[in-house]
Design goal:
By secondary structure, the chain is α+β, with helices and mostly antiparallel strands. It is about 45% helix and about 15% strand. Strands 1, 22, 23, 24, 25 and 26 form a six-stranded mixed beta sheet that branches. Pfam families: UPF0182 (PF03699).
């Protein structure tokens, strides 16, 4: 290594220092390196075992080879460039170095000379490692470039296939940026070495740069400027997906000013690079200096000032100049987000609500909205857990999920939750390694409830609201072969965030705690016999996993045996991300019961931000709504996108962890590229089991992205789009604090033009900046239907229909409804409003439906359904059931209905609900009852104030008086 520099031994002063200190340092470094290598090996080896066990060993091999290859190529090039630069600079140093009195550099050279060889190696290795790590992190860019194809459609500006922008352009940018970075690093190191050894003398009156330094610096600058010329040329293509002041893509200013400026700057940069190369022989900095100044001035004039002049003096006075470019943006955006005319049908919704219709109207309305989901998956979560959790160490992920099942020959919407292991519920004194990782290993079963308050045979209304408490027996209805064929153990789920060690010696008793299959409150024990874990019977494997998880118990615990397996990466999201790291996954995995097993389903998206001309927005902003705000969920990615497809449906078996990827959008070119990069990992769509297909649904994240874009891009006329007066917005949820968008909801809706119900996902729009309703958008979510994914936008032409915010305000402020809710609000209970559903009927206009839940303090810590509210034709109604609420709304067209106050629900309600009164009491009784209720409301308010002030005796006295007033009002109305 001493031959790397042609130094004279006399240049090196005698080395000094303690040999013991040097030995300690070397030992410490060696131990650190050994530890790093050991942990790295353990991580790679265990990953290899996991992928191989899952049947995706080819994914690990492909990723390892690509990352390692990119690391070596980029690392060696950068490290070699750095080493060559330093060596060349040192070898070309002046033979006569300046004295210390000239510039004071002698002491720095004396410090560097003894270690310059190691310093060279160290700097080159560090630069190589950083460059290699950066290159390895670009494996997605490389694989898309290697395997990408054509989209079959050209961009309207350069005539290049869209695949060039999505697959090729990012890779060419990566290479150009790497060359620029390497040349800058080499240039800085060259300057440093030349200055240190006298090749650059700033204090000298002449010959400030030695000939060797001039040659090297000129060459490096020329390389950088040439790379910059290539960067300018590639920037021309970036304009088609660049962010503009009004839109994504090329604008008038880009076309007339920026685009030609980029081409001119590329030409000037080439000329500048040639001048620096000429400087190698001419030995004068005049010409390259002029070239560099010309490039800098041109970049300012052409790249900044000229576009600003064009924008300010041509576009701003005449915005219509943007119309041709905006038209291209509209077309590209609608294609990129799959919201063009082939997927979206916009039509006027002219069905008018008429509360004074025929006598059969109530029956017709009830039939058309009978499937309205009154069970709010977020609000009833606590109710499910309270009524169905046999043990504290089981819990349900929040929010619950909505799916449909064929029960009794009829499609029924259900709210489901999976009973998963929750180790936070284990007694603290029992939280040792053995219990946490070998005893408490899994959850058990599902909890389900009908979503629409209807009995199975539709013979009449439910006789109680216990449907909202969930019914463990309902899981047997989901299993066609009966309860004996149901695998209820859940080893892989949304809350399985830790590893588990399973397996027992031959002939030994089971040690894993289990719940009896009968669902009774009884414990038993079991042993896992699936293939979701990695065998760790050998000492070497236990050592590797002990290092991986940082636990000595893998070597010391008595629970380890020859049949032991370790289960990890146990959440559905983790497992799919590992085997398909190129997918963007929805955060919410939803459970389905198929063929006697619980399967988790995840929607996988292919996205890009390089689709030419399409509008670019934040994925998080487009998908954020009240549901995510309440649950803390966040979807990925959080960066900008302008293209999205639901390319893959993934399933994870809740018992054995088997991961399967099914191609869903088989026409997606990005999916084709990844399938080529990882052959055999994605199964064809035809491989989806018939039993699973009905449970695949239209993904909410994609729907929310599409509604975000359709709010503006339903306007296809560029001139009207530029004005923005026809834009819509997604309304904020009126029932929750803060400015959170309403979440879409799943329900059965009548198909337009027929009586057939369609499993749908629905949302609403209001005019931009106003509250009335503009449109209702639904999408066919039935994966078995050829119309799956077809969106229907029902636009209200009159623009006078009340929007969700206005309807909620009316419902909340209605005196009759307020009086009905009065007993729930005055005794310390909490009234919570559920989803406000906008339901377009096929022939009777729009109806709004909203469930209201009451949480009765500590005596009933979970919410139960108190009332159903309805708004129809601006008439309001309420009742214990949807049918009663509809009847109430229709009757309110005559003399207003006076509510019958009821007592708050008991913690475990049963029996028949109190019916809504069918007759109108006389006016005097009604007025007196209203006065009594007003007095009761005042007393309830005073009681609450007394309680907050700590005067509980006064509070009880006021409550008794208020309840007496309510009882008197009830007596008047009976």
């Amino acid at each position: 290594m001493s031959e790397l520099f042609d130094d004279d031994p006399r240049d090196s002063p005698p080395r000094s220092g303690s040999g013991r200190t040097r030995a300690l340092v070397i030992t410490a470094v060696a131990l650190a390196v050994a530890l790093f290598l050991l942990t790295t090996f353990a991580s790679l080896w265990t990953d290899h075992l996991w992928f191989d066990r899952m049947g995706y060993g080819s994914v690990f091999t492909r990723l390892f080879r690509v990352r390692a290859g990119l690391f070596l190529v980029f690392g060696l090039i950068m490290g070699g460039a750095v080493a060559a630069t330093i060596m060349a600079a040192y070898r070309s140093r002046p033979l006569i170095q300046p004295a210390a009195g000239d510039n004071g550099l002698e002491r720095y050279r004396d410090a560097v000379n003894p270690i310059r060889t190691w310093l060279l190696v160290g700097v080159a290795v560090i630069a190589g490692v950083f460059a290699g790590a950066s290159g390895a992190g670009k494996w997605r860019t490389y694989l898309l470039w290697r395997n990408g194809g054509d989209f079959g459609q050209d961009d309207p500006y350069f005539g290049k296939d869209i695949g060039f922008y999505v697959f090729d352009l990012p890779w060419w940018h990566l290479l150009v940026n790497f060359v620029m970075a390497a040349s800058v690093v080499a240039l800085l190191l060259s300057l440093l070495v030349h200055y240190l050894y006298g090749g650059i003398r700033l204090q000298s009156q002449r010959d400030r740069v030695s000939p060797g330094a001039q040659v090297q610096l000129s060459t490096l600058i020329a390389i950088f400027v040439l790379a910059k010329a290539a960067d300018y040329w590639l920037d021309r293509y970036d304009l088609v997906h660049g962010d503009g002041p009004k839109m994504t893509g090329i604008s008038f200013t880009d076309d007339r000013a920026v685009l030609p400026a980029k081409a001119i700057l590329a030409g000037i940069a080439v000329i500048c690079a040639v001048l620096f190369l000429v400087n190698i022989w001419r030995r004068t900095w005049l010409l390259p200096g002029v070239g560099a100044a010309l490039l800098l001035i041109s970049a300012i004039l052409l790249g900044l000032i000229w576009p600003a002049i064009v924008q300010g003096f041509q576009v701003r006075p005449s915005p219509d100049k943007e119309i041709p470019y905006l038209a291209k943006n509209i077309d590209a955006t609608r294609q990129a987000y799959a919201i063009d005319d082939s997927k979206v049908m916009v039509q006027n919704y002219t069905a008018q609500a008429n509360a004074s219709g025929p006598a059969s109207l109530a029956q017709d309305l009830d039939a058309q909205v009978a499937s309205a989901p009154l069970v709010d998956p977020l609000l009833v979560h606590d109710l499910f857990e309270e009524s169905q959790q046999e043990r504290s160490y089981y819990s349900l992920a929040e929010p619950l999920d909505v799916d449909r099942y064929d029960i009794g020959g009829k499609d029924r919407a259900l709210v489901l939750g999976v009973r998963e292991l929750d180790q936070s519920g284990i007694d603290p004194k029992d939280r040792n390694w053995t219990n946490l990782h070998t005893t408490y290993t899994h959850g058990s079963g599902v909890i389900a409830a009908y979503a629409n308050q209807r009995p199975l045979d539709d013979s009449g209304e439910s006789e109680s609201i216990q449907w909202a408490q969930g019914n463990q027996g309902a899981q047997n209805d989901l299993v066609e072969n009966g309860p004996g064929q149901f695998e209820q153990r859940v080893y892989f789920g949304e809350q399985a965030t830790t590893y588990a060690v399973v397996g027992r010696p031959d002939g030994a008793s089971p040690v894993e705690l289990d719940l009896a299959e009968s669902g009774e409150d009884a414990e038993t024990h079991t042993t896992y016999d699936g293939r979701g874990g990695v065998p760790i019977g050998s000492t070497f494997r236990r050592l590797m996993y002990g290092i991986k998880f940082g636990s000595s118990s893998f070597l010391l615990s008595g629970r380890m045996n020859e049949n032991s397996e370790v289960l990890y990466n146990r959440t559905p999201r983790q497992r799919v991300e590992k085997v398909a790291p190129w997918l963007t996954l929805d955060d919410d995995a939803y459970p389905v019961v198929v063929d006697g097993r619980i399967q988790w389903v995840l929607d996988g998206y292919t996205t890009t931000d390089h689709y030419p001309g399409s509008e670019k927005d934040s994925f998080q902003e487009m998908t954020d709504d009240v549901l995510q705000q309440n649950t803390g969920l966040r979807t990925l990615p959080t960066d900008q996108i302008n293209y999205m497809r639901n390319a893959v449906k993934a399933t994870v078996d809740a018992y054995d962890g088997t991961v399967r990827l099914y191609a869903w959008d088989e026409s997606d070119p990005i999916l084709h590229a990844w399938s080529k990069a990882f052959p055999g990992t994605v199964l064809p769509r035809s491989a989806i089991p018939d039993d699973l297909l009905p449970h695949l649904r239209y993904p909410e994240d994609l729907f929310k992205v599409q509604r975000f874009q359709l709010a503006k891009y339903h306007v296809t006329d560029a001139r009207a789009f530029l004005q923005g007066s026809d834009w819509w917005q997604v309304p904020t949820d009126p029932a929750t604090p803060g400015e959170h968008l309403m979440a879409p909801y799943r329900m059965f809706l009548d198909e337009t033009g027929s009586d057939k119900e369609v499993w749908s996902l629905s949302t609403t729009f209001t005019p931009n900046g106003r509250n009335n309703l503009s449109a209702v958008m639904t999408v066919n979510s039935d994966a078995t239907s050829p119309e799956y994914g077809t969106m229907e936008v029902l636009e209200r032409p009159d623009q006078q229909t009340q929007g969700p915010g206005q309807v909620f305000s009316n419902l909340k402020n209605d005196s009759a409804i307020s009086s009905a809710l009065l007993p729930y609000q005055g005794t310390g209970s909490l009234v919570t409003y559920g989803n406000l559903l906008t339901i377009p009927t096929t022939s009777h206009g729009l109806m709004y439906v909203m469930p209201v839940y009451a949480k009765q303090g500590t005596s009933s810590p979970y919410p139960v359904l108190a009332y159903v509210l309805v708004s129809y034709d601006n008439h309001l109604g309420y009742g214990k059931t949807l049918q009663a609420a509809i009847t109430s709304a229709l009757k309110s067209t005559g003399t207003p209905q006076t509510p019958t106050p009821t007592s708050p629900p008991s913690p475990n309600p049963s029996g028949s609900p109190t019916p809504t009164p069918s007759g109108n009491p006389n006016g005097n009784a009604e007025q007196r009852a209203r006065a009594l209720l007003d007095e009761a409301q005042t007393l309830f308010t005073q009681a609450d104030a007394a309680g907050k002030a700590g005067d509980f005796a006064k509070r009880e006295e006021l409550l008794e008086q208020a309840q007496d007033k309510v009882a008197q009002a009830v007596a008047l109305l009976e």
